[in-house]
Amino acid sequence: MHIIWAQQLFKKGSVLLSGQDEIKVIKPGIRNSNAGPDFGQAKIHMSGLEWIGAIEIHVRASEWNDHNHQRDASYQAVILHVVWENDKEVYRLDGSLVPCLEIKNMVEFEVVLKYRSLLSSEKKAIRCATFLPHIQPFVIIGMQERVLVERLERKANDILTRLESNQNDWIETFFQTIAWCLGLQVNAEPMLVLSQSIPVKILAGQGWNPDKMSAILLGQAGFLEDPKGPASEKLKTEYQFIQNKYGISGPPLLWKLFRLRPGSFPKQRLALLATIISNLPAWFDMLTEVSNPDDFFRKIENSKKSELLTTYLQENGFEKFDFKITDFIRNNLVINVFSPFLTAFSLYKNQKEWIEKALDCFRQPNLNKMQL
User: Fold this and answer.
1) Do residues 80 and 217 both lie within one domain?
2) Which of 289, 307, 325 represents a domain boundary (last residue)?
3) pTM, whole model, 2 decimals?
4) Which residues form the domain of 195?
5) Number of neighbours of residue 347 by Cβ within 10 angstroms
6) Quick check: helix, strand or coil at residue 147?
7) What is the pLDDT of residues 333-354, one digit of tens each?
8) What is the number of domains present in the chain?
9) How confident is residue 32, by pLDDT bands cut at 50, 70 and 90?
10) Cα 75 vs. chain centroid, distance in angstroms?
């Protein structure tokens, strides 16, 4: 019922059973997942007037009373009761009749069959996968492009919100977004909080030195408190010097390790972040000049590595650390950093060509499309 209403899968030019007035649905409204009516901010034309309010959905109209909506003030704003079967007139808290739309004779039988088929189909990543071969390719491509742009804009708006909180400092925002991305879903939040505790001007003050980048990140993360060997001791000493000089302190962080592969452990991710930010200014300049993300990744893999950091990881139980950018990391950075950043530029500067550059990143042959 909710899908039928949201997608307007019934014959138009319908009439209200209570009063026989014709209605025209202008906006079906926004689905409400919390307490209260099923849809809010709906707009309909009824009885010669335009109504804005809530929509309640039931199989049978009598369920309104079964759920005690007649005694609930939050249902006073319901402008239309949409039901499969209108078996009873129902009233609001103030005693006024709720207009009712019965749709059982307005829905094509094919719609019901498709819905039942979807419910009974085997669980798949996309439940409607069996219908895809019957859809014209240009329709699917158009839908994918539209959804892609919508997701890019959503991610870009998150970046613009972060940019505003950073007083329009793009490099600061770039650093925080990379850190958030490398944390994956599990540790994205602590990685973001960690990056927000380290002003970029402090990193720049160290000349973007890989050893010092490693000391600052690991120290702020709380991973240098119990040194396991000479490299750990040296990084701790370096961090303490920088900490005292700039008056920074590590924020309280809750790192999650359960079910993580070694390559996704926070120390490994911070090691990769330290390598990336040692070239942060160059990265940011390249972002606006190069449309092929592979140029970024080649720069990382060819950049100077911190031997001190490699030894630190070995002291902490990581026998091997590969600074190579895996396809997984590459795709993750393209999807969650590079393309959204270019889209953010487009929105911020009102220049559409940046959107095209963002979409070009997704057209790279080795990008895993399943991650989109």
Assistant:
1) no
2) 325
3) 0.64
4) 166-325
5) 17
6) helix
7) 888 998 899 899 888 988 877 7
8) 2
9) confident
10) 32
